[in-house]
Amino acid sequence: MSDQADGVKTEQARGRSGYRLGCAGVVLASVALAVVVAISAAVLIPVPSCACASPLDLAVQNYSHQDASVSWSQPGILGTPLRGLSGSAVAARCTTLIAGLRSGVVEVSVNSGGVSRTFNVHIRDALAGGPAVIVIGADGHIADPISGFQPGGYPYPDTLC
């Protein structure tokens, strides 16, 4: 009879350990799913337009007497908008707009008085020799970007005209 009782206890013990392993599998699957969800959420969180260590990567010097709109965009992961960078600001008349951007190639569009130009600007990479400077002349002409500091120009003056 004791052999039969031992057999029942062994069956019960096996059943419990099987149940415990099943619970452990569910817990591991839950943890794995939570990690996947956390990584996915981190990839989808938008990045602020000035998510960088350097506060001066782009300067738009507006010497004209009208405001200019400036917008920028940078592709994200594998060229998609995912974790990409975009933003816009106004370069008020006779002032300098300064923006901090992430490193890499950034598409910058400048629109002043009906004149619009778009540039691919290198930010903090091997081709960049300092901040990119775009000058809008008094006549509204938008010049090609210059990499580096303008002669006699850092820090940029508050009033340009």
Can you offer a commentary on this structure?
The strands form two sheets. The chain has a four-stranded mixed β-sheet, with no helix packed on it. With 161 residues, it is of the alpha+beta class. The protein is built from one helix and eight strands, in the order αββββββββ.
Explain briefly what this protein structure is:
With 161 residues, the chain is an alpha+beta fold. The chain has one helix spanning 2-44; strands at residues 58-62, 68-74, 85-91, 96-99, 104-112, 115-123, 132-136, 146-147. 27% of the residues lie in helices and 30% in strands.
Sequence of strands across the biggest β-sheet = 4-1-7-8
Task: Point out poorly predicted stretches.
Answer: 44-54
Helix content: 25-40%
Assembly of the depicted chains: single chain
SSE topology string: HEEEEEEEE
Shape summary: elongated
Number of structurally distinct domains: 2
- Output the number of helix runs: 1
Any idea what the radius of gyration is?
30 Å
Portion of residues in beta strands equals: 25-35%
* Class by alpha and beta content: alpha+beta
Terminal residue distance: 106 Å
The tally of beta strands, per DSSP, is 8
The major beta sheet can be summarized as: 4 strands, mixed
How would you state the average pLDDT, rounded? 75
